[in-house]
Amino acid sequence: MTTKRYESKEPELDVLYQDMSDHDLQPLWEMRGLLTPEPNPRTVAHRWSAKQMRALGERAGQLVPIDRGGDRRVLACANPGLGGAPYATSTLWAAVQFLGPREAAPAHRHSPSALRFVLEGDSVWTMINGDPLHMAAGDLILTPAWTFHEHHNPSDKGMLWVDVLDLPTVEFLEAVFFEEGPSEEVIPKMDAQSASEKLYGSPGLVPAGQAAQPSGNYSPLLAYHWADTDAALRHQADVSGETDVTVRYTDPVRGGDVMPTMRCEMRRVAAGTKTSAHRQSGTRITTVLHGSGRITVGNNEFDVEHGDIIAIPSWAWTTVHANPGVEDLDLFTTSDAPVLSALKLFREEWS
Ligand code: 1HN
Fold first, then answer.
1. Cα 161 to ligand 1 centre (Å)
2. In whole angstroms, what is the distance from residue 250 CA to residue 257 CA?
3. Which CATH number covers residue 157?
4. Residue 67: inside a domain
5. How many Å apart are CA 308 and CA 253, to the nearest integer?
6. Looking at per-residue confidence, does 239 or 216 come out higher?
7. Is residue 283 in a domain?
8. Using one digit for the tens of pLDDT, what is the confidence trace for 251-310?
9. What percent of the chain clears pLDDT 90, i.e. is strictly above it?
10. 3 DSSP assignment
11. Which of 71, 74, 135, 142 to mutate to test the pocket of ligand 1 (most atoms within 8 A of CB)?
12. Distance 72 CA to ligand 1 centre (A)
């Protein structure tokens, strides 16, 4: 017997269940909780503390070299609801990555899509298909599916960022592919601006004409720098007079989300204010960039500060309370909303 054996007090039915299980069959009529009125997530609300992750990451930096094979010094957020899987939510991977002084993480590519959100430092370049993208605090860097990517830190300071991937989704779909890149070390030409930004980084302007069309199904703009995000938030707050504003990172050519599987947004909650409650289907990962406060997710309350990572399960009511003081609370969130939207499964509500 390999599958679950159902039992019955009626002898004939019990024998039927035994014979069914011998043939890997189960009776739907005995099953409970298969179709729930609302999502019943395995993902639980959880906070990973930046202080802990930094201390443990620094210890890993002393002990763990970056070689072929290991490839990346990454501490994966493992959601306590997911039975030991190295996944922050049922659909998203989240982790902190440490790249020490003069270290390089070699090139590879994979079918899962990834992004980097930088927490501090300004000394790393990520090469995407050979294009060097500068990474500094508050920047979002995309490494879309099947693009070669490698990270270089030519400075004498370590650096740390958050990685988010759609790996659990792609694994669930049994569509993971991986390939190592060429192993010769290519030192990036550290231009201030990548070709990606030169072509697609001017607001409202994209290259026209047949030859200029980007080929992938992801944003051809691969870096979104903090100065632009900050200005967009500040101006939105100015124009609207709101204390809770959000910007969405979009594909400058096609509009819509930056990658087919992940939505990225930055929310600013003014110091000393509290948001209304919101919930959506699908899961989310939130990273605190600036400020401090309290995030309520369902029945859980998390005090948060710079660098903390929060997992938000499907359909959990969420409110944000920014501490009073000089700093607004800036929250970077990645969700699986493009996947749910494409499948017509996306729902959201405000209280
Ligand atoms: C990956 O390629 C990176 O390139 C980071 O920095 C984290 C986690 C799982 C699978 C691939 C990177 C990753 C990863």
1. 12
2. 5
3. 2.60.120.10
4. yes
5. 33
6. 239
7. yes
8. 999 999 999 999 999 999 999 999 999 999 999 999 999 999 999 999 999 999 999 999
9. 90
10. S
11. 74
12. 7
Are 221 and 252 in contact by the 8 Å Cβ rule? The answer is yes
CA of 244 relative to ligand 1 center, distance in Å = 32
Tokens 């790249």 map to which residue? 99
Substitution candidate for ligand 1 out of 71, 72, 128, 177 with most atoms within 8 A of CB:
72
Residues in the chain: 351
What would the pLDDT profile of 9-49 be if each residue is shown by its tens digit? 999 999 999 999 999 999 999 999 899 999 999 999 999 99
Give bridge partners of residue 244 from the DSSP assignment.
Answer: 269
Taking the model in full, what pTM does it have?
Answer: 0.96
Q: Which residues' Cβ are closer than 6 Å to ligand 1?
A: 72, 74, 93, 95, 97, 105, 110, 114, 149, 163, 165, 167
| Structure letter (DSSP) for residue 300 | E
Cβ atoms of residues 282 and 314 within 8 Å: yes
Looking at ligand 1, which atom is closest to the CA of residue 151?
6
SS3 at position 282: coil
Q: Which of 66, 149, 165, 170 to mutate to test the pocket of ligand 1 (most atoms within 8 A of CB)?
A: 165
Which tokens belong to 26? 């189960």
**Ranges of H-type helices in 225-264:** 226-240
Given ligand 1 and candidates 129, 163, 309, which is best to mutate, with the most ligand atoms within 8 Å of its CB?
Answer: 163
Domain-located, residue 25 = no
Measured by CA distance, the residue closest to atom 6 of ligand 1 is: 72
Residue 152 belongs to some domain of the structure: yes
- The set of residues, in sequence order, having a beta carbon less than 8 Å from that of 161 and lying 6+ positions away, is 96, 97, 116, 117, 118, 119, 124, 135
Q: How far is the CA of 307 from the centre of ligand 1 (A)?
A: 19
Range of the domain at 281: 46-179+219-350
Would you give the DSSP letter of residue 162? E
Total domains in the fold of the chain: 1
